[in-house]
């Protein structure tokens, strides 16, 4: 089963889409409705089974600051975790290691950044090629349609008839007006084997774009927060506060969120990201 890791903003949500869910029969039905040949369907279903069989019940223990990629600011620790009542910290909320995710997905390469501070991780992301499609925000199935356009491109829906990868690092791109998305794109980083000469998509609604070098500032958290928009917006506000401590003003109206959701304690990673001016 092809899994996607996704990003949110004008570089934003790296999130792991799995539209087949845990129900193999449902996944097979969708693939047949999409008209995939029998050979491909059987390959996707076997990957679906392998992915489910390989899920760990719990990740190896690592300290929180290692899991996040930075040390949390004391102010934000108190805000996130209480010592009485329902807000007690749980190790299951510790994010999955990014290095493990990038072993599974062909993540965009990053280089070290001189900014080291509490509350966020700074990364330099070199220029690279991404496959992009526009999300119809009015349609109830706009995100699903966008996903399947990219799925088709990755799986032989291109002029080379090539399958680019079994797993790719996918992103949702959003330009913002306050907390509201003005426009949304879904995209994935084209795997390194195809970066130099990406195949041309068969569908005109999918394009290949070269994104410029970028410096990003990210916060990470665990558990499945995919639909918890209030929590995600709160994490963006905390990220802005952490940047303000360092006198950093990010680009306005651009956000990024990464989500990788795998069943099991400590098997999820979410990231909210802002971009340097």
- Spell out the helices and strands N to C: EEEHHHHHEEHEEEEHEE
Given as residue ranges, the uncertain stretches (5+ residues, pLDDT < 50) are 6-21, 79-87
Number of strands: 11
State Rg: 19 Å
| Helicity level | 25-40%
Q: What does the average pLDDT come to?
A: 83
Write the SSE topology.
Elements: E1 3-5, E2 8-9, E3 14-15, H1 24-33, H2 38-53, H3 64-68, H4 74-80, H5 98-104, E4 121-125, E5 128-134, H6 142-154, E6 167-177, E7 180-189, E8 206-211, E9 214-221, H7 229-245, E10 254-261, E11 268-275
Helix pairs in contact: 1-2
What keywords describe this structure?
alpha+beta; single chain; globular; 277 residues; 27% helix; 25% strand
Architecture overview:
With 277 residues, the protein is of the alpha+beta class. Helix content is 27%, strand content 25%. It has helices spanning 24-33, 38-53, 64-68, 74-80, 98-104, 142-154, 229-245, and strands at residues 3-5, 8-9, 14-15, 121-125, 128-134, 167-177, 180-189, 206-211, 214-221, 254-261, 268-275. Strands 1, 2, 3, 4, 5, 6, 7, 8, 9, 10 and 11 form an eleven-stranded mixed β-sheet that branches. The longest helix is centred in the C-terminal third of the chain and has 17 residues, at 229-245. The radius of gyration is 19 Å and the shape is globular. The N and C termini lie far apart (38 Å). The model is unreliable at 6-21 and 79-87 (pLDDT under 50).
Task: Give me a quick take on this structure.
The chain is α+β, with helices and mostly antiparallel strands.
């Amino acid at each position: 089963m092809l899994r996607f890791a996704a990003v949110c903003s004008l570089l934003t949500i790296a999130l792991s889409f799995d539209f087949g869910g845990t129900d193999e029969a449902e996944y097979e039905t969708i693939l047949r409705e999409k008209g995939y040949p029998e050979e491909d369907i059987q390959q996707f279903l076997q990957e679906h089974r392998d992915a489910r069989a390989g899920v760990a019940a719990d990740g190896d223990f690592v300290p929180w600051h290692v899991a996040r990629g930075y040390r949390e600011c004391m102010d934000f620790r108190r805000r996130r975790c209480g010592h009485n009542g329902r807000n007690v910290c749980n190790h299951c909320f510790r994010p999955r290691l990014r290095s493990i995710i990038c072993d599974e997905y062909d993540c965009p390469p990053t280089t070290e950044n001189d900014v080291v501070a509490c509350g966020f991780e700074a990364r330099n992301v070199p220029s690279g090629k991404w496959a992009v499609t526009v999300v119809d925000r009015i349609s109830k199935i706009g995100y699903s349609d966008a996903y399947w356009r990219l799925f088709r491109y990755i799986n032989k829906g291109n002029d080379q008839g090539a399958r680019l990868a079994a797993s790719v690092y996918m992103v949702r791109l959003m330009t913002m007006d306050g907390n509201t998305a003005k426009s949304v794109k879904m995209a994935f980083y084209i795997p390194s084997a195809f970066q130099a000469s990406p195949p041309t998509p068969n569908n005109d609604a999918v394009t290949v774009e070269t994104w410029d070098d970028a410096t990003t500032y990210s916060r990470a958290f665990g558990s499945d927060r995919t639909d918890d928009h209030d929590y995600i917006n709160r994490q963006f506000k905390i990220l802005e506060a952490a940047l303000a401590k360092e006198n950093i003003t990010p680009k306005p109206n651009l956000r990024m969120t990464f989500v990788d959701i795998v069943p099991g304690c400590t098997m999820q990673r979410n990231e909210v990201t802002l971009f340097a001016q």
